[in-house]
């Protein structure tokens, strides 16, 4: 029974912690349409190549994209905002996995859906997106990931001991590079606290 209680506590802590983290990141995010207006109104310097900014937020601008533009003051010629969602069904067939939407200014929004029993493969999803009109050079892609440093604090949401457990679990979670099958030599992580 004790093992069951420990597992249940760990699972509920992980689920609650991920939900709270998602909510806090969403609160801070800039709506994608507002970001696009800012890029159109004040065009940044552009550099050759393609950048793929991954995000769990289907609506907001990835924090790594905002962070990169704020600090490096450049955008790649081609920018892909890529969201991976897990559905409530075990498998999503390849022809239903990917949606591509052009936003203008060289920016595309790619939504990828996987079933809960599938393993995400972002490079394969980008190949599927190319079949739907996404124009990227697979050999010249840099993947940008947000790396959250989670801090224990006294914000409402979880008890501090559960927050500490969530921080420990997050540090030990599978890295996004491996989980999404990204080529490690083409990944840049930008940190957020």
Account of the 3D structure:
The chain has seven helices and six strands; from the N terminus they run H-H-E-H-E-H-E-E-H-E-H-H-E. It is of the alpha/beta class. Helix 3 links the parallel strand 1 and strand 2. The protein starts with a helix and ends with a strand.
Number of beta-strand segments:
6
The residue ranges in which pLDDT falls below 50 over 5 or more consecutive positions are none
Envelope shape: globular
Distance between the termini: 37 Å
Largest sheet entry = 6 strands, mixed
The percentage of residues in β strands lies in 25-35%
Radius of gyration: 18 Å
Classify the secondary structure makeup into a structural class. alpha/beta
- Report the order of strands and helices: HHEHEHEEHEHHE
Helix content: 25-40%
Please list the strands of the largest sheet in the order they lie side by side: 3-4-2-1-5-6
Tally of helical segments: 7
Average pLDDT figure: 85
């Amino acid at each position: 029974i004790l093992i069951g209680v420990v597992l249940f506590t760990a699972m509920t802590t992980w689920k609650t912690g991920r939900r709270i983290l998602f909510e806090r990141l969403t609160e801070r995010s800039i709506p994608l349409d507002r970001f696009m207006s800012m890029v159109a109104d004040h065009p940044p310097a552009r550099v050759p190549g393609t950048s793929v900014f991954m995000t769990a937020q289907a609506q907001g601008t990835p924090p790594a994209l905002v962070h990169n533009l704020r600090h490096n003051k450049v955008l790649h010629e081609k920018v892909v905002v890529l969201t991976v969602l897990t559905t409530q069904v075990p498998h999503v067939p390849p022809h239903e996995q990917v949606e591509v939407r052009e936003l203008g200014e060289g920016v595309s929004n790619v939504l990828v859906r996987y079933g809960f029993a599938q393993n995400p493969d972002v490079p394969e999803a980008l190949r599927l997106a190319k079949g739907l009109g996404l124009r990227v050079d697979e050999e010249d892609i840099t993947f940008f990931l947000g790396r959250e440093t989670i801090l224990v604090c006294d914000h409402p949401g979880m008890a501090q001991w559960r927050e500490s457990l969530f921080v420990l679990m997050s540090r030990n979670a599978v890295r996004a590079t491996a989980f999404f099958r990204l080529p490690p030599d083409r990944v840049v992580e930008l940190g957020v606290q």
